[in-house]
UniProtKB/TrEMBL annotation, chains A, B:
SMART domains: PKS_ER. Its cofactor is Zn(2+). This is Hydroxyacid dehydrogenase. Keywords: Metal-binding, Oxidoreductase, Zinc. SUPFAM superfamilies: GroES-like, NAD(P)-binding Rossmann-fold domains. It comes from Spiribacter curvatus. Residues 11-343 form the Enoyl reductase (ER) domain. The lineage of its organism: Bacteria, Pseudomonadati, Pseudomonadota, Gammaproteobacteria, Chromatiales. One of its GO terms (molecular function) is alcohol dehydrogenase (NADP+) activity. It holds the Pfam family ADH_zinc_N. It comes from the Bacteria. Signal peptide: none annotated. Belongs to the zinc-containing alcohol dehydrogenase family.
Length: 353, 353
C-alpha cells in the first residue's frame, strides 16, 4: 500500500481537510486494515487545536477504528483477510518493561506509541490515525470485533468503552456496589452501561433537571441533580465509587463527601490540575481514595469487546459524513451529541473517487 | 473518683496551666485509670491554640495515654486493678453503624467521641484528655499494653504509631515493596520502623542534607534529599508507596511522579486543602492513587501494640516534666524533638501534693 486518503489538520488551520498520505509498507508482523468506521473522541479536537502544545502537523486524528483486514505480514498468524478488527489509542510499546509484560501497555515506561501524533519505534515516522481509508498496525495492537457487535457502534468501545470499563474492573466494582457516574457524554453513558452490567446500583449526576429522564433511559437507577444542595446532602456517605468522566476542571470535594469510608473517586476524563483543589480532610477522615485510570491495556481492550458482545452492550452513536467533521467538532464541544459521533468512512471514499 | 489534677488550656490564654477537674463516676462498663505517661501530639497544640476553631475551653489535651487500672465497673470482665493499659484518640462511638461493626470506630457515622474536646454520648459532658492524673474510659476503648513494651515509649503508639501502621496494612504494603516516607517527626520515624518490620525497602525523604545520617540511623535503607532535583529525578517511577506524614501544605506532584504505575500516595498528616493542587494527569497517566487514612480502629490499635512487642519496636521519646509543657510545645512547633515528648505524670503529682 502506498497511498491512502485521509482527513488531516494542518498547522495553518484548525479545521480538517482532505489529504493524501503515504501508509507504510507491510512489515512481517503488521496487519493492513481498510477502515469502515472511526469514532470522534474529544481528544481528537484537543490535538487538532494543539491544546496540549504537542501536536505535530499534519495530524490525522482518530483512535476508535474499526475495519476489515486487507493483508497481513509473513509473521502474522492470528488475523486473516476479511476479519473485522479494531485499533484503539495505541499502536506499539516497548514490550519489555514491567507494565508491558503485564498487558498494561498504556503505562509503558518508554511511553506507548499513540495511534496518531506518535512516532514509530522502528523508522521514526509519524503515526496517522483513523480518519482515513486505511491503516497499517502491528498485530499485537489489533483486536477482534466479535461478530455479535455492530461494527460502527463497536468503534467507540476502543477508547470511550475501555476507558470506563477498565477502572471499574481494576478498582473492584462488584454487584451491589453503589456507583455514581459523573458526566453523561461518550464516556459517562458507557460507564452507566458497564456498571449496570456488573450488577452495581448506578446513580447519574447531572447539572440539569432536564437530563433526569435521559439518564433514566440510559439505565440509571437513580439520578441526582448536582446543583440541588438538598439532593447532594441526602446522599452523603452513600457511594462506594464515583466514576468521574468530566473532562474539564470541576470541584471534586462535594462528590468526595458522598463517598462512604473506603470509597474511591476515579478520574478518567480530567488531565489538568485539579481546581478547586481537593481538601485533604475529605480523604483522611474517610480513608477515601482519589484514583486515576488511563484507557486500558491490549488484553483488557479485547476483554471489553467480548464483554459487550456477551452483555449486548453497544455505544449509542450518531453516524457522521466526514464532510461534516468540522461542524461535528463544534457540536462535541457543546456536548450536543448522543453520545458519540462515528465517521462512516464510505463518505471519505466518495470524495476520493 | 471525684477530682483529678490536670493541665488545661483556658480561653483567655494559649498556654497550659494546672487545673482541678471532676472525673465522672465509674459506670458499669468503665475502667478507671491512673495515668503514668501521656504523649504530646501536634494535634494537642492545634486544640490548645484553637487552630481549627472547634476548641471548647477549658481543654485538657492528651490522647496517647498509658497508665494502671485502679477500678473497673460491675460489667467489666477484661481488665483488673493493676493492669497496664492505654487509651488513644477515641473513647466512644455509636457501636452500631457499619464502620463501628467492622472495628473502624474512627469512621463512625455519628463521629467517634474524641478523648478530649469531645462530648460524652450519655450525659453530654465534655471529655478531658491525658494531661491528667486520671481518666475514666469505657472498656471497649481501652487497650492492653504488652508487658514487653516500655510503658512510656508505648504511649505514642496510641496515635503516632497506629496512624502510620494502619495505612501500611490497609493499603497492602508487603515485604519487598519500595516505600517512601516523607517527613521524619513523630509519625515519620514510626513509619520507617513499621515499613522495615514488614520487610519493605524504606527510603526517607528529607529537605536537609544534614538529616541523611539521622534517617539512616532510624533504619532507612536509602535517603533522598528532596531539594536535590537530580536525586528526585533519578527516583522517577520507583516507589510502590509513599507514606506522607507532613502536617503542613506541600507540593505532592513531585512525589506522585516518583510512584510507579498503580502506586499509592498515603496522606496521614495533612488535613488542609492540598496546595499547590495535584495535577490530575499524575494520577490518570499512571493509574496512581492518592489516599487518606485516619488513626486506626480499636482492634487494630491493640494489634499495633502487639506488633511492636513482637518486633521490639518502640517510639523514640524524650521524657517531659509537665511544668515544661509550654516550652515543649514551642520545640514541637520547631520540629525540635526526637521524636515524641512523653509527659511523666509523676511530675504532675509533685505539683498536686
Amino acid at each position: 500500500m502506498t497511498q491512502a486518503n485521509a482527513y488531516a489538520a494542518h498547522s495553518d488551520q484548525s479545521g480538517l481537510a482532505p489529504l493524501t498520505l503515504e501508509r507504510r509498507e507491510l512489515r512481517s508482523d503488521d496487519v493492513a486494515i481498510s477502515i469502515d468506521y472511526c469514532g470522534v473522541c474529544h481528544t481528537d479536537i484537543h490535538f487538532v487545536q494543539n491544546d496540549w502544545g504537542m501536536t505535530q502537523y499534519p495530524v490525522v486524528p482518530g483512535h476508535e477504528i474499526v475495519g476489515r483486514v486487507t493483508a497481513v505480514g509473513d509473521g502474522v498468524t492470528g488475523f486473516s483477510q476479511g476479519d473485522i478488527v479494531g485499533v484503539g489509542c495505541m499502536v506499539d510499546s516497548c514490550r519489555e518493561c514491567e507494565p508491558c509484560r503485564h498487558g498494561l501497555e498504556q503505562y509503558c515506561l518508554e511511553g506507548p506509541v499513540l495511534t496518531y501524533n506518535g512516532q514509530d519505534r522502528h523508522d521514526g515516522s509519524m503515526t496517522y490515525g483513523g480518519y482515513s481509508e486505511a491503516i497499517v498496525v502491528n498485530k499485537d495492537f489489533v483486536v477482534r470485533i466479535p461478530e455479535r457487535l455492530d461494527p460502527a457502534a463497536a468503534a467507540p468501545l476502543l477508547c470511550a468503552g475501555i476507558t470506563t470499563y477498565s477502572p471499574l474492573r481494576h478498582y473492584g466494582v462488584q454487584a451491589g456496589h453503589k456507583v455514581g457516574v459523573i458526566g453523561m457524554g461518550g464516556l459517562g453513558h458507557m460507564g452507566i452501561k458497564f456498571a449496570r452490567a456488573i450488577g452495581a446500583e448506578v446513580t447519574v449526576f447531572t447539572r440539569s433537571e432536564a437530563k433526569v429522564s435521559e439518564a433514566q433511559a440510559q439505565g440509571a437507577h437513580h439520578v441526582i441533580v448536582s446543583t440541588d444542595d438538598a439532593q447532594m446532602q441526602a446522599a452523603a456517605g452513600y457511594f462506594d465509587y464515583m466514576l468521574d468522566t468530566v473532562p474539564v476542571q470541576h470541584d471534586l470535594n462535594p462528590y468526595l463527601s458522598l463517598l462512604r469510608h473506603d470509597g474511591t473517586h476515579i478520574l478518567v476524563g480530567l488531565v489538568e490540575p485539579i481546581e478547586p483543589t481537593v481538601h485533604a480532610g475529605n480523604l483522611v477522615f474517610g480513608r477515601r481514595v482519589l484514583a486515576g485510570s488511563l484507557i486500558g491495556g491490549m488484553p483488557e481492550t479485547q476483554e471489553v469487546l467480548d464483554f459487550c458482545a456477551d452483555h449486548d452492550i453497544a455505544c449509542d452513536i450518531e453516524m457522521l459524513d466526514i464532510r461534516n467533521i468540522n461542524e461535528a467538532y463544534e457540536r462535541v464541544k457543546r456536548g450536543d451529541v448522543k453520545y458519540r459521533f462515528v465517521i462512516d468512512m464510505a463518505t471519505l471514499r466518495e470524495i476520493a473517487t
